[in-house]
Each structure stands twice: as C-alpha cells, then as structure tokens.
Write a structure and sequence with these properties.
Elements (H helix, E strand, L loop, with lengths): L6 E6 L11 H4 L4 H15 L2 E6 L3 H17 L2 E7 L8 H10 L3 E5 L21 E4 L4 H12 L1
Parallel strand pairs: 1-2, 1-3, 3-4, 4-5
The protein binds 1,3,4-trihydroxy-5-OXO-cyclohexanecarboxylic acid.
The site of 1,3,4-trihydroxy-5-OXO-cyclohexanecarboxylic acid (DQA) has 10 residues, from loops.
Amino acid sequence: MRPPGQTVMVLNGPNLNLLGQREPAVYGAATLADVERLCAAACERYGYALDFRQSNHEGVLVDAIHAAGAAQAQGTLAGVVFNAGAYTHTSVALHDAIKGADVRVIELHISNVHAREPFRHRSWLSPVAQGVMAGFGVRGYALAIAALAED
Ligand code: DQA
C-alpha cells in the first residue's frame, strides 16, 4: 500500500473531451466531467489528490508526462492513469516520454481495443506501462486508481 497524500494524474488524450456524445455504443453515455467525478471519488477513497487533464495535442501530453515524472521523483505523485486515445496506436513520442520520464503509467482504454479493428491492437504505450486496463468502460478509471493505490 502506497502512502496517502500523493496525487494521481489522470491524463486523457484526443477526442476524449467528446465522451458522452462520441460513439456512445462503444464508449458509453458518461461525459468527461462524469469521469472526472468518478476519478475524484476513487482518489478520495485512497487519500489521493486528483490532477485530471485532457488534451487533443500530442506535445501537451508529452509535457504532462514529463511533469508527472518530475512529481513522481519528488515523491508527490503516485502515478498516471493514461488514456492516450488514438495516440496509443501511433505515438513513439509518448512511448519515449514515459520511458524518459521514468514515470509509472497505467494505460487505460474504455473499450476493449483488442476486440476492435486491427489498427487498435498495436500500442506504443504498453511496453512502457506498468499495466493495461481495457474494456471495463469508464469504471476502468476507478479500477486503475485502485491498482495504483493497492500496489
Ligand atoms: C480508446 C481506444 C482508442 O483506440 C481510441 O482511439 C480512443 C479511445 C478507449 O478509451 O477505448 O480514442 O483509448
């Protein structure tokens, strides 16, 4: 069990601002604000503060990973729950950022990417992630926070 009082960063990539209206049959009806509330409740359970972010821009996500690495090195961050959206399947830059920042990341997908199109089966994040959560809907965010806390 990790010491309480740390922060968990929940980082969301492109198009996740559209949750609730975007392909609801795949991603469900919850909005990103709902996800933030769910993450806040999960963090509260473990005594974590929440740093919840979303960006559609790869470089902004790289910067967030660097900041997370610095915070983890200082002992103030427990780790990152990262739904990189489509950048999961394309971004060597995010792979390198996670590796370079030496930050603990749980890769997260709302949908089961392995049951979808073949181009979603490849992840640049998985080789540098501590673990992968996929297919549990938005509940997966809470499960990933629990995984960080109970490790
Ligand atoms: C996603 C799956 C990705 O393939 C997709 O590009 C997304 C969302 C998910 O949460 O299931 O944007 O990461």
